[in-house]
Design a protein that fits this description.
The chain is of the alpha+beta class. It has three domains: about 60 residues, no CATH class; about 80 residues, GMP Synthetase, Chain A, domain 3, CATH 3.30.300; about 80 residues, no CATH class. About 25% of the residues lie in helices and about 25% in strands. The chain has seven helices and ten strands. The strands form three sheets. A five-stranded mixed β-barrel has the order 1-2-5-3-4.
């Protein structure tokens, strides 16, 4: 089965999509069917013939994007950006401790889903009513964790490269302070915590035998199908182009 990696707006991590278009190239604009609707995305990894359990990936590439697809996507993006602005302003007015990180709209524009981070449970019923009236759409608010927020927003880690969770890690695993200690890293939370405020995911997979699949360990600078390993020894940040010592 041909599977391509497609980057969608508002999602830091590419989505695996089945495709019949074997000649797709990097950064090609395509229309993807996902969650019952169509979205515009760009090719992040060209199609590869991969074994995949039935029924295959949840998403699929429908076609290359045309001008009308681009215009619809641009309109949808403007609408979701407006939804985020309105939601942030109204939540502040209502005194709700919510941090909105991403918004998605369905193809018809009649439904908007907004993702937010909060310390505890939030009574957002009044907010939903206000947003539905202002945006003239059905509103769905979803609370996510700080790690999921980091995936949604993306960013650059201490190593100078894209966040592991937002680029190649398939999921989250528990990380403990003892993992940093075992690698001789400084136990300063500011140096070993990620954008989400939690201990960095790499503290775990670099401690495991062989590191990431392929045998790379701390100090190696390589690229593999599992991602990019460019973590300097001793926990000190490095620039993306600096050699490992």
């Amino acid at each position: 089965m041909l599977v391509a990696q497609i980057r969608l707006p508002g999602r830091a991590r590419p989505v695996s999509c089945a495709t019949a278009l074997a000649d797709l190239e990097l950064d090609d604009s395509v229309v993807v069917e996902l969650d019952g609707g169509s979205r515009l995305g760009r090719v992040a990894r060209v199609p590869l013939d991969l074994p995949w359990p039935d029924p295959g990936p949840a998403a699929r590439v429908l076609r290359r994007a045309g001008r009308e697809d681009e215009e619809r996507a641009s309109h949808r993006e403007r609408r979701t950006e407006k939804a985020l602005r309105v939601a942030r302003q109204r939540a502040e007015e209502l005194g709700l401790d919510m941090k909105f990180v991403r918004a998605e709209g369905n193809p018809s524009g009649r439904r908007l889903t907004l993702f937010f981070v909060a310390e505890g449970r939030v009574d957002f019923r009044q907010l939903v009513r206000d947003l539905a009236r202002q945006l003239r759409a059905r509103i769905d608010l979803r609370q996510i964790g700080v790690r999921d927020a980091a995936i949604a927003q993306g960013g650059i880690g201490h190593c100078g490269r894209q966040l592991c969770c937002a680029s190649f890690l398939p999921g989250f695993a528990p990380v403990a302070m003892k993992m940093a200690k075992a690698q001789g890293l400084p136990l300063n939370p500011s140096k070993i915590s990620g954008q989400c405020g939690r201990l960095m995911c790499c503290l775990r997979y670099e401690l495991e035998p062989g590191g990431l699949p392929g045998g790379s360990r701390r100090g190696d600078r390589t690229r593999s199908g599992s991602g990019c390993q460019d973590c300097p020894r001793g926990g000190e940040p490095s620039s993306p182009g600096s050699p490992s010592s």
